[in-house]
Design goal:
The structure is a single chain. With 325 residues, the chain is α/β, with parallel strands linked by helices. It has a domain of 221 residues: Rossmann fold. A six-stranded parallel sheet has the order 2-1-3-4-5-10, sandwiched between helices. The chain has a three-stranded mixed sheet with strand order 11-8-13. A two-stranded parallel ribbon has the order 6-9. Helix 6 packs across helix 11 and helix 9 crosses helix 11. The longest helix has 21 residues. The two termini are 37 Å apart.
């Protein structure tokens, strides 16, 4: 493992859930030169500004965690923003890294890159083997483009740009917007507010039978730093030139019903859980094959209930800000 704690490391997207977790991890690991830039300092959609920023700062490593993200409703209603902004952010940062001779970069993608009907669990080589989920296709295509950008700079210029594909993430700094959040923050907020009102019932969209995999963002950050610092020989022995991305997950899933029951336990909700089967379920199962990452020596360590407790504590402590995301 290559761990030079004096390396100058730029984390793009440090205010987001994943980026902030990577910063926490780097600092706890003893890195002393972690560089960040907020939107008021650097517009990642502005190619000239990004290149100027890279010229002014000499980086050794770049974590590309910046992205426009959202739930099904956001992806459905803002497809142009999701494909344009993600393509621009990725292209600007990856090209700037290459232009300023930065050899090491880690790009963070998403499990939605895989076909809607991919065989379960989803392996890395399922990429581009079938049609994508229509509701988030623009976002998925942008993330696929990010993987291919990294692969292309590696192939043409000998760069060491790696990509990790996380499963569904949750944890501190998640988005708790009432309309645009993902399933865990949506459920935590709904159950929290039901407890405050003294509701006797919480209604959950869908049948509760679909299965999903969830990874705490602190585990994702640990995996990201681990993959970034793997020596080339170990990394390349477990990847292929045109299949360079690595799945990151727990390798375990649960039903939405089981998730809701655990959220009820964590939040202290004592009422009934009702599932509205008239609402869409989405894909019946989404599970990542994480055998490649395990072969590289990393496994997740945060169990779901432990992680949900941590996420809920953060939400309670930051409820005012979490609502305004």
């Amino acid at each position: 493992m290559q761990h030079d704690k004096t390396s100058r490391v730029f984390v793009a997207g440090h205010r987001g859930m994943v980026g902030s977790a990577i910063v926490r991890r780097l600092l706890s690991d003893g890195y002393i030169n972690v560089i960040t830039a907020g939107r008021d300092e650097l517009d990642l959609l502005d190619q000239g500004a990004v290149h100027s920023f890279f010229q002014e700062n000499e980086f050794d490593q770049v974590y590309l965690a910046a992205a426009k993200v959202g739930g099904i409703q956001a992806n459905n209603t803002l497809p142009a923003e999701f494909i344009y902004e993600n393509l621009m952010i990725q292209a600007n940062i990856i090209h700037a890294a290459h232009s300023h001779d930065i050899q090491k970069l880690l790009f963070l993608g998403s499990s939605c890159i895989y076909p809607k009907l991919a065989e379960q669990p989803m392996r890395e080589d399922a990429l581009l083997t079938g049609a994508l989920e229509p509701t988030n296709e623009p976002y998925a295509i942008a993330k696929i483009a990010g993987i291919k950008l990294c692969e292309s700079y590696n192939r043409q210029y000998g760069r060491d740009y790696r990509s990790v594909m996380p499963t569904n993430l949750y944890g501190p700094n998640d988005n708790y917007h009432p309309d645009n959040s993902h399933v865990i923050p949506a459920l935590l907020r709904r159950f929290h507010e039901a407890c405050k009102r003294g509701d006797s019932e919480v209604v959950i969209w869908g049948s509760g039978t679909p299965m999903r995999e969830f990874l705490h963002v602190d585990d994702m950050a640990a995996a990201s730093v681990y993959v970034m610092n793997l020596d080339n020989q170990t990394y390349q022995a477990n990847t292929k030139p045109m299949l360079s991305h690595i799945n990151v997950g727990t390798g375990q899933d649960c039903t939405i019903k089981q998730l809701a029951e655990t959220v009820a336990k964590v939040t202290g909700f004592k009422g009934a859980l009702t599932f509205d089967s008239s609402k869409p379920d989405g894909a019946p199962r989404k599970l990542m094959d994480v055998s490649r990452l395990k072969s590289l020596g990393w496994e997740s360590s945060i169990e779901l209930e432990e992680g949900l407790n941590n996420a809920y504590e953060w939400f309670v402590d930051n409820a005012a800000n979490a609502r305004s995301h």
